[in-house]
């Protein structure tokens, strides 16, 4: 992947692209840069489909979310768009101390721009995501990452979900301690 990234970097400089104008190609290049800097983990139950670790280096995508959907006869990978959203949101929370709701709105706009730049219908994409957000909200939380940042859930004031998450994380922590003591 590094070779591809370096080639894209050289191509950008060779073309002398004006990075001060709106560019789908430049946005795609930025998303690639983000994808190379974080770890994506799809092995957990994540309320609202996606989240991030405390340090922001891991983006968690719910294990039940399909990686692709079909829009106008084309298979579309959703990972890139969700990672962009979560990375932007976490950066705004960490670096600027924004409230979750403000950071989420800005991240949602970045996600929408990336979806549109990829030639994908935002309406189709959003409809797909909303269906899975509802399903994820109904699922039991049996596998939560211990380093999941719960600030967004606190800021949403969903006390019932927050309590369920904290209980699931305690069970995960105890299971890890028991497994560690058996070694």
**Uncertain stretches:** none
Quaternary state reads: single chain
**Number of E-state strands:** 5
Gyration radius, in Å:
18 Å
The biggest beta sheet is recorded as: 3 strands, mixed
State the helix count.
7
**Termini, distance in Å?**
37 Å
Following the backbone from N to C, one meets helices and strands in this order, namely HHEEEEEHHHHH
Strand arrangement across the biggest beta sheet:
1-3-2
Q: State mean pLDDT (0 to 100 scale).
A: 87
- Secondary structure category: alpha+beta
- How helical, in percent, are the residues? 55-70%
The total domain count is 2
Give the strand content: 5-15%
Silhouette:
globular
Report on this structure.
The chain is α+β, with helices and mostly antiparallel strands and 183 residues long. The chain folds into two domains: 1-37; 41-181, no CATH class. It is built from seven helices and five strands. The chain has helices at residues 2-15, 24-37, 79-96, 100-117, 122-138, 151-155, 159-181, and strands at residues 39-44, 50-52, 58-62, 68-71, 74-77. The strands form two sheets. The chain has a three-stranded mixed β-sheet. A two-stranded antiparallel sheet has the order 4-5. Strand 2 and strand 3 (58-62) form a beta hairpin. Helix 3 (79-96) runs antiparallel to helix 4 (100-117). It is globular, with a radius of gyration of 18 Å. The termini are far apart.
């Amino acid at each position: 992947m590094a070779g591809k990234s370096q080639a894209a970097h050289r191509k950008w400089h060779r073309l002398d692209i004006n990075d001060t104008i709106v560019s789908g190609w430049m946005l795609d290049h930025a998303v690639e840069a983000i994808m190379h800097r974080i770890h994506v983990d799809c092995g957990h139950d994540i309320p609202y489909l996606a989240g991030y670790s405390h340090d922001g280096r891991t983006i968690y995508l719910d294990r039940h979310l399909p990686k692709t959907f079909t829009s106008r006869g084309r298979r579309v990978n959703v990972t890139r768009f969700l990672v962009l959203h979560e990375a932007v949101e976490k950066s705004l929370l960490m670096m600027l101390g924004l409230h979750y709701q403000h950071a989420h709105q800005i991240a949602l706009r970045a996600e929408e721009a990336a979806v549109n730049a990829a030639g994908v219908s935002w309406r189709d994409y959003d409809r797909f995501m909303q269906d899975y957000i509802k399903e994820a909200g109904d699922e039991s939380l049996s596998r939560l990452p211990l380093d999941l940042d719960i600030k967004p859930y606190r800021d949403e004031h969903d006390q019932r979900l927050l309590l369920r998450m904290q209980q699931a994380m305690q069970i995960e922590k105890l299971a890890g301690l028991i497994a560690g003591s058996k070694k």
